[in-house]
Structures are given as structure tokens and as C-alpha cells.
Model the fold of this input.
Amino acid sequence: MTISIIRKNETGPSKDLNQLEPSFMYTQIFKEILLDVDYGQQAIQDLTEHCRKLNKDDNEEKQVIAEFESTYEPSKAIWWYTRECFTYKMLNRALRTLDGDIIIRMGFFLRDVHQQIEDLHKKQATIYKDKSFTVYRGQGLSTADFEKLKNNEGGLISFSNFLSTSTDRETSLEFANHASTIKDMVGIVFQMTIDRTISSTPFAKIREESYFNEEEETLFSMHTVFRIDKVRKINEKSSLYQVDLTLTSDDDQELRDLTDYIRGEVKGEGWYRLGDLLLTIGQPNKAEELYISLIEQASEDTDKACIYAQLGWVKDDQGQYERAITYYTKAIKIKEQNSSEDELDLSPYYNNIAMVYDNMGEYSKALEFYEKSLKIKEKALPPNHPSLADSYNNISQVYKNMGDYSKALEFSEKALKIREEALPPNHPSLATSYNNIAIVYDNLGNYSKALEFYEKSHQILEKALPPNHPNLASSYNNIAIVHVNMGEYSKALKLFEKGLKIDEKNLPPNHSDLAPPYNNIGAVYYTMKDYLKALEFYEKSLHIREKTLPPNHPDIAQSYNNIGMSYSGKSDHSQALSFLEKALAIRQKSLPSTHPLIEETKDNIDYVKKKM
Done:
């Protein structure tokens, strides 16, 4: 049984989607999708066919699958769920592991179980007169989950799966006792106080509907949320704990704020919402599973185009840029061939493929597609539309990457002009514009202007974001770079370390976003002539870039160049030359022939050769 624990301070106005537990958001969105998707008889056949493949050597289970296929109806959903055959096992495993493919295949079944619980809930509300009652559940929790639970009295806990409970405390104690014998598990008895008048999640007594109709079981629908009242030992001699929970209501302001926030952050309709959520919370592999399953079932060209575009986003996120281009190209081809499509719908497709080319360092291709996207917008939208600012901003970034800083500044200022007119003063998009203009001024050597715009950006981010948000880390890094350029190295190092601390807290050890801060800290140590420390951080950055980027990416060239110059500082000139030549080879392949970085690398090679 997967649980999610939400601390009280995770539900305030500055919450961050990345800081909430994935399973909490996943089941929240999935439960809403269930009621929004149409299923036909084909859904049953698709599921049973898939199950036969999984159980091809299990004759007993194959008989159960055949029975399900021929006799299943929605009114028997709870009976099939409690039978603990393939339906129960697959469903709970899929919800525990966030298996998008199985969840899609079983969507009709989950909806039917939920709907039957809801129907029984309404019916039983008129029969049972007691306003509140108590149920129990005995299970094990990992020591890590238990510690989190123990430290979060007053917070929220949600159960991702359908939640089976009993009125028999002794039976629950037996389950908890058994769980406590397993290594690294704590035996827990949840004591749940249920107010029948609360309408947040349906629940029902299911003795008559259950496969095991001798048990007094109350079944709650998935994503039931409780308030954690108290965590205590059952008695001094026992190793078991009792956790007192109260079912939350739709009127619980904290839960409602959290739910509204998640709904607002996750875009799209139907299954696409689930994919968007998975990408937003950093689970591109799960999103890919979901979209591949959807593409197999899609019949309409417009649906296929949308799914190909989402797969392009996934591959871009994974750093598999060639595959991303393939998917985006498929999506664009379908859109361009469909004359009934609104031309404005093509604009984001051009924009997204441009982003991938930008990530690959193919700046002329990036510019070509950004300009296609902009051309459509300029024809279809009013001149001060915020979407135009996004396009100007993207084009500015490409010019910056190409080393054409005057053009970059021109487009950044166009974007800022629109945003200042159209948006409130603390809007995050304004912070982006200020940040981008600061980068250009920094590259032009106008450090006081760069600092001015970086600080404007940082002030907005501090108001809008929680203290450990990744965008704050980027902001610290950017301000630090200006201090480096101004020769204020100790200030720069402190800011870089602030940013790195946030990044290391939020990201797995080899995440691509850790490469720039490691590189930047290396650069400070290099400037301070501490070449050993510089090499340590430059090599960390290179290790990540080689794992996450294509072999001819300009960022890998940057790492080779920096490592080469650090070896030169240590007077290891043969190693220096080896890395600098690698850097030059990549830059000559990936950058325009007039790019200043090519000339810089050649100068570095000449410098090292003279020292040899």
C-alpha cells in the first residue's frame, strides 16, 4: 500500500509541485481522469488479451481471465477486486509503481470499482444512522516512511490504492504484528475516525458485494486523504504503533488549496493530463510508457500528432535529441498535411523542435523554426500578446548562444517591453526577461547593468518561490558569474555554493542541471589559480555532460577547454593540449565559423604550444 505524507508547510501559497510526493499528485489526477474518459467493450478485451500474454504458463490464472472476459460487468467490480486474482494484483502493483501502461489498460475497471463504492456510499447514507464510526487497518511501514509520519502530526496522509479497512481491531493487530517481523518495517495500526457526512472520498461497507462475504470490510476509493492526529506506541511493551487519523472533508481549506493548486499546474485533458503531470514531476520514463501505450490506441491523426509531440518533449527531457527531432517531425508532418487545422496550432510544434535544435547546439536550425513559429503568431495575435514575448525571448537565446549579443539584446528588450505592459510586476515571466537581458549585458562586459537586471530578477523569484526552488539556484549562479567577471571571487564562490546546495538537494547525483554549477565553481577556482580544485569541479561537470549530452554538444567542448586550461595552469602541457584539441574539434563542428569561442580555443592552443 503506497502512502504519501504532506507536511503542513507543503500546502502554503509558495508550494512547489516538485516538492510534493509524486504518488499524491499522480493518484489525485488519475482519479479525476477516470471519470473523464469513455471506455467501450474493447477495453475489456484489450486487458484480458494483455493478461493472457503475461500469464501464458499459468493455466489456473488463464481460466480466471477467461471468466472475467465472459462474465464481467460493472456491478461486479468490487467482487472482482476483492477476489485477489489478476485484477487485484495488477491494479495494486500498477498504482504502487506508477505503471502508466497497466493503469490505462485497467482504467475502466478502476472507474467501475470507484463508481460502485460511490453508489453504495449514497445508498448506505440513508440506512446507517450513526454519524461517525471507527475502522482499523494493520500494515507495515518502512522505517523511513514511519519517521516521516511520526514527525508530521497535523499533516495529511493519502492512500494511493483502494483502502481496505475493518471494524475488527484484533484482526488489524495481527496484520501489524506480522509486518513488524519483516526487516526495516514498523508494524502500524491505523485507527480511522470517519464522519459519514463528509463527502470528500466515497467509502462503503462491502460485505454483500465482496468475494469474501464473511468479512466486515469497509472499502474506500483510491486517494483517500486523512489528517494525522496522533502517533503513539500501542503500549510500553509493544513494538507496534497506533496512528490516529481523521477523514478530511471537501471543506478542509488546506486540502482544497492543495488540490486546486495541482489541478492548475497540470495541463491537458484525459490521459494527456497524466503524461503532463509525469513530465512536470520529473518522471519522463513513466510518461514515455504512457504515451507509447496511447499511440498504439490512437486512431485520429490529430491525436497522433499530439502524442508524437509529447514523446518529443519526453526525449528532449531525457537528452535524446535525435529521437526528439524524429517525434516532433512526425507531429509537424501530420499537422501540416491537415488543412482543417488552425495554423496557430502549428506554432508550438515549430517552437518545440527549435528548442531541441538549440539544446543540440544546431543554432541555425533552431532559429529557422523559432522564426516559423513567430511568423504564425505575428499574423494571428495582437502585437502585445504575451506569447509573442515568449518567441522573442527564445530567439534572443539563440542569438546569445551564437555569440551575436547585439541581436540577442534587441529581441530580449522586445520581450521585456510586452511583458512589462501585459503582466503584473512580480510575474515569473518578467523575472525571465530581466535574467536574459542580464546575461547579454554580462557577455557584453557591462557588469553593472548585468547585476542590476539579475537583482531585479532575483527579487521576483524570492517573493514567488519556496526557498529551495531550482530557479533560485540558477539565479544565485547567474549573479555569481557577474561577481567573477568583476573580480569579486569570494562573493562569487559563496553565491555558487548557495546555488549548488539547492541543486544537490533537488536533483539526483548525475542530473544534467548539476553540470553548470560544478563548471562555474571550477571557473572561480581556476581564476584564483587553485588548479587542483578547478579540475575537481570541471571533471564533475564533464562527467555529467558526457552522460547526458550528444558527443558534439558545445557544452562538452566548454568542459574540454576548461580542463585543458587547468592542466596548463599545472604545467601539464601535453594533457592540456589533448583536451583543447578535443574542444576545438567540437566547436568547429557545432558553432558558426565566426563564433568567438572558436578563436578563443585556437588562442588557448597556441598559448599551450608556446609553453611546451
In short: The chain is about 65% helix and 10% strand. The CA atoms of residues 77 and 109 lie 7 Å apart.
